Automatic annotation (TrEMBL):
Source organism (scientific name): Scytonema hofmannii PCC 7110
UniProt name for this protein: GUN4-like domain-containing protein
Cellular component GO terms held in the UniProt record: outer membrane-bounded periplasmic space
GO MF entries: tetrapyrrole binding
Lineage, broadest ranks: Bacteria, Bacillati, Cyanobacteriota, Cyanophyceae, Nostocales
Annotated family: Belongs to the CpcE/RpcE/PecE family.
Domain GUN4 N-terminal ARM-like repeat: 5-87
Length: 237
């Protein structure tokens, strides 16, 4: 249900949308962002101002949503703004292993979740080393040794660019809420239905209509131990 504070329609409504964008609840902000995006350059100006004012704070999924709107717009002004203020994206790409996570950020900003998931697993194999890169999957012992910094970067990328729906921390929160019951987790996040595992790639949902925690897949077909190492990692403590 749309909040009565929110006015839709013409350019004259831009100023009336500014306040709910800045001070509204997450639900209101979620509604306001696409409305401003549909009001042309004036609406994009408000979104750019909003993002600029918040640039020194850790990015949230609200920032990610605004960034995504600007990133996918046809506005030269918006593209110049992002290049000048967020040249490598909205999430700082920290890595203790000098790994480049910018391809994931670009794919997530474009909402190409399937490609982003594929590159995420590739980057996790890079973290594990040359042998994992060659085999293209992970041992749980390798995951245990991942630097917390890198896992946190990967997680933040997914959370920020998915309206808070995806990410390892989201999966962990669901897992803990289910008493660490794996069978219940697989059902809850859409990886299994009854006795049938979800088939890769066509049976997975590669957009925001997916269940919460559906992505990233993170080596889903290799069993519980990799996932257990991932969700129990010290990065989340």
């Amino acid at each position: 249900m749309t909040d009565p504070m929110i006015v839709s329609g013409t350019t004259s409504n831009i100023e009336s949308l500014r306040q709910p964008l800045v001070a509204g609840s997450l639900q209101i902000q979620q509604q306001v962002i696409p409305q401003l995006a549909n009001l042309g350059e004036g609406g994009l100006d408000v979104l750019m101002e909003f993002l600029y004012e918040r640039r020194k704070n850790p990015a949230t999924w609200v920032d990610g949503k605004v960034y995504q709107v600007l990133y996918t717009s046809d506005s030269p002004k918006a593209k110049e703004f992002l290049q000048n203020n967020f040249p490598s994206g909205i999430v700082p790409l920290k890595s203790d292993c000098n790994i480049d996570y910018s391809p994931i950020q670009k794919l997530l900003a474009a909402q190409d979740f399937q490609a982003a998931d594929r590159i995420t697993i590739q980057k996790m194999c890079e973290l594990a080393g040359p042998t994992a890169i060659q085999r293209k999957w992970l041992y749980f012992t390798e995951v245990e040794n991942f630097p917390a910094t890198d896992l946190q970067t990967l997680n933040t990328l997914w959370v920020v660019h998915s309206e808070g729906k995806f990410g390892f921390s989201v999966q962990r929160e669901i897992w803990l809420s289910l008493g660490k019951n794996w069978d219940n987790l697989w059902e809850k996040i859409g990886w299994k239905k009854g006795n049938n595992w979800t088939r890769y790639p066509n049976e997975f949902t590669w957009n925001l209509s997916a269940p919460k925690g559906h992505l990233p897949l993170s080596n889903q077909l290799r069993g519980v131990r990799v996932m257990a190492s991932l969700l129990s990692h010290s990065a989340w403590s």
